[in-house]
Amino acid sequence: MNVKGMSLSMAVAICALLIWSAPLQAANEAEVGELLVKLLQAGRAVISAHQDLINDSTKGNKGFTPEYMGDKMIEKYREMTKIDLRQPNSTPYAKVLLALVDSGKEVIAEAQPAINKQGIGFKGMIPAAWGRKTGDKFAQKTGIRLKLTAVDYRFPGNKPDDFESEVLKMFNDPSYPRGKEYSRTVMYEGRPALRIMTPEYAGPSCLKCHGDPKGEKDITGYKREGLKEGGLAGAISLVIPVH
């Protein structure tokens, strides 16, 4: 391949396409999507379970390293799916799943100065922030887009597109089966892609920032949405190129 004169970002994108398109040609894209969603959820659960440690202003080095994050993410994923990513033959999709683990570890690596800084309570490393940054890195590696979205989104990059807005309305309809994901093959940026959305519902930990009193600022500085436990909080959205 002649990369002379090619921008770095273009070269990275082409290399990612060459590396990842072949393994996924024979894959069941829907199955890959389901496994990726669960792995992202596992990682966010790890971040949620360690919020007190991450935000402890009295401690310096907390030991919440990228390696620790990766180990805990894999352990949680094994609990959820019975798939052990430490075993090379645990799933035919191990390569792409481990790319998501690596992306999550990179986010924690970049956050080390903030996580280990004493004297500051809130470090900004919450499940939503980790998930968004991990999804961005994963897309650069694989070409698979993994995004958190909601009607009441906070970060501009989480704003739902037309497809996501349509599906979020479906999820919010009382007649739609609770917890059921939605998928459809569409044209995306000029090529076929499988779009998958998985609804997410507010749990007790979510309500610390997104619950009542509505309109009051939470620890992140955003206004609370007034969500109720069990209410639709948003969705995980994937775009997987179809080969």
Please give a handful of descriptors for the protein shown.
243 residues, alpha+beta, Beta-Lactamase, four-stranded antiparallel β-sheet, 9 helices, 4 strands, disordered N terminus
Number of strands: 4
Number of helices: 9
The chain-level structural class is alpha+beta
Shape: globular
Largest sheet: 4 strands, antiparallel
Kindly report the spatial arrangement of strands forming the biggest sheet: 1-4-3-2
- Give the end-to-end Cα distance, rounded to a whole number of Å: 22 Å
Residue fraction in strands? 5-15%
* Rg computed from alpha carbons, rounded to a whole number of angstroms: 19 Å
Number of domains: 2
Query: Taking all residues together, what is the mean pLDDT?
Result: 87
Stretches where pLDDT is under 50 for at least 5 consecutive residues are 1-27
